[in-house]
Request: fold
Amino acid sequence: MNEMIHKIFNPQNEFFLLTKNAKRITHIALSSLILPVVFIVIAALITQFLLAPLYFGDPSKASSSAREAFGLYALFALIILFIFLWVKLYEGRPFYTIGFTKHNAARKYLFGFLTGVVMNAFIVGVLALNGCIEVGAVNSASTGIGALGGVIVFLFAYIIQGASEEILTRGWMFQVIGARYKPWIGFLISSVLFSLLHMGNNGANIFAAVNIFLIAVLFSLFVMKDKSIWGACGLHSAWNWTLGNVFGLSVSGTGEKSTLFDLNTTGNELISGGAFGPEASVILTGVLVLIIFFISRKIFINNRTKKYIFPNDNLEFEHSTHT
Reply:
């Protein structure tokens, strides 16, 4: 088991080696909790009390859909900006080194995006076969063809949101903790934080917590497989967008206002996911476990024949100071 973990979360993976010329690698106390909370809180305050009033005038008079879309754009763009500034000014390295490498970038992103679309389509299909999906009435401009403009607006909003969460948890947190200490530590901490960020949402329960953690595992494996975060960004964005704005289902306990199909979950909450949506469904649990198994196996097989060195399970960084 120890060998398998080392093979999958290889400290010599190019993803971690991207930090080798950094002036300093952020300490775990900062990267695992303090800075993520600071970035999120400051971004939320600026969005709510400065940017939203500037954009809407009176945000309370704007539609809930407009406020939600604006929040996705502004809040998560600010988080990306804060991480960019930290990586550039404190760690002293280019922003692309968090996992935005050029090699096959478009292909990796597109593959991740299509994977998210196919996974959601499959899960919704299985839920429908189990009688856990009902179709609502298409009776407003926020649903169906009349909602197409809003659906496209949300697509680009989720491209930013998905990228932002991947940059924070996988591209930066997972990477710097894994590079300075051990990859599995970075993987565990980033996955737990990712799960906790969703646990305050409507309908959150133990099944939601398990599935969100498994989703974080899947995203991390995409990073290990691609040696970049392009695929994880594509998968994350497609996941939220198709679930909420294509199928109209709850995304981690939050509903969407602009959607192509007006679908709703119903029936046994263990299967449907209840108020949290399909992300709390045992159907998704089974699907995630199978996909994680096959991707882990693929990574393990690919790394098994490679020469592997364990320099005290840590990378040695040339010309870098760990502070």
